[in-house]
Design goal:
The chain is an all-alpha fold. The longest helix is centred in the last third of the chain and has 30 residues. The chain is elongated, with a radius of gyration of 15 Å.
């Protein structure tokens, strides 16, 4: 079976988000922003999984676009957590770099799928 890089990376990102959520709740006693990140950060991989079994090319593009939006929202929460000093520079750079990598992959997949639809 062919390796699905975006599926694997989004799953690893979700694990990072869950671990960060646990850390923020336990160590920082932060429950609101971290919960928002938990929701958006774990839904990225779920939408990519849904896209695997899309009913049509348009459905695939739609599901990947939702994953893209969820990742963009996740980046917002990560930036906000960093700006409000809940994250160290090292924590921020690690998770943000992974988020940016995944959103770039998703964007490339969407562009490619749209180009293939127009041909």
């Amino acid at each position: 079976m062919k390796k699905n890089v975006v599926k694997d990376k989004s799953f690893q990102f979700a694990i990072q988000v869950v671990e960060l959520y646990q850390f923020l709740c336990k160590e920082k006693k932060e429950f609101v922003l971290s919960k928002q990140l938990l929701r958006s950060g774990t839904s990225v991989g779920a939408m990519i999984r849904e896209a695997e079994h899309a009913e049509s090319k348009a459905d695939f593009i739609h599901k990947m676009a939702i994953a893209q939006k969820e990742m963009n929202e996740s980046i917002y929460w990560i930036e906000l957590l960093n700006a409000t000093n809940y994250l160290t520079t090292e924590q921020f750079e690690s998770i943000n770099n992974d988020a940016v990598e995944v959103i770039k992959l998703i964007t490339t997949i969407i562009k490619s799928a749209k180009a293939n639809t127009n041909n």
